[in-house]
Amino acid sequence: MKDKNDIILFNSSCGDPVKYIDLVDALKKVGADKCDILMLHTELSFGLPNKDIKRKDILQLLIDAIKELNVKTLLFPTFTFSFSNRQEYDVKNSRTSMGALNEFARKMPGALRSIDPQMSFTVIGEDKDIVRDTGKECVGKNSTFDKIHDKENVNILFFGTKLEQCFTHQHYVEWALNVPYRYNMDFTGEIIAADGSRYEDTYSIFVKYRDVIPFTPPEFTDSLLNEGVLKKETLGDSALYCFKEKDAYNETKSWIERDVNAFLAEPYDTRPLVKEYSYGNVTTVQ
Predict the structure, then answer these.
(1) Please, what is the end-to-end C-alpha distance for the chain in angstroms?
(2) Which residue ranges make up each domain of the chain?
(3) Where do runs of H (alpha helix) occur along the chain?
(4) pLDDT tens-digit map of 96-153
(5) pTM of structure
(6) Distances from the Cα of 149 to the Cα of 3, 38, 124, 133, 259, angstroms
(7) Do the Cβ atoms of 199 and 167 come closer than 8 Å?
């Protein structure tokens, strides 16, 4: 039987294979194992998946590689923005738009998903409380973001994706600082609980004003890398990035306090602040 470490998961565009052991080594090099809770934003961008392995088997191998880190708790964003898309939220069955690996993880035996019709999280491992009894502010008080910020040893991993693409934690910092270009907006809809019961509820998201244009500048990532706060390891056609949640919070806070427009494409007060929201096809915090 072939050694698991030698299994080729992806083939990069330049022809180099990405093996199971390469992934495990890269995860350790960025320090993804140096925590008690690991939150993962994922995209399978390392190359073409090995055509000789079934898709579900590749996804399982990726989970296996992550589990080799021996992190006590794995936390996967499984956002649906169901109410923003005028849909009901089914805790057990609503698919996430956060990538194939996160969707695979939420359906694993023993996984627990939060009852949040907009920005749910799925936990695999010990600390299930970070997704239990969450509040009604999706990035605010008593949200999963808020709960992990109160923990002492949390890492955020970008697994084949970049900060500029999905640094959702930034919105939690914006909420904490009460930035002037966002406001809490209520969304109401129907939830189907794990036991099949149905009920109506209201949750809020810290949304942007209509004409505000969010933008995470590449300079932010560059500065974190230069300071050694963020670690990067190239893998195939993509890379892994990892940093401490506390560092992510403090660095984002520092940038906003120096310049309130740091994470905007243009100053927030360039145009009138209009409360208007576009429903449908929502996949990110608008």
Answers:
(1) 49
(2) 4-270
(3) 20-29, 55-67, 100-106, 144-149, 163-166, 169-177, 218-227, 245-258
(4) 999 999 999 999 999 999 999 999 999 999 999 999 999 999 999 999 999 999 999 9
(5) 0.95
(6) 39, 12, 18, 16, 23
(7) no
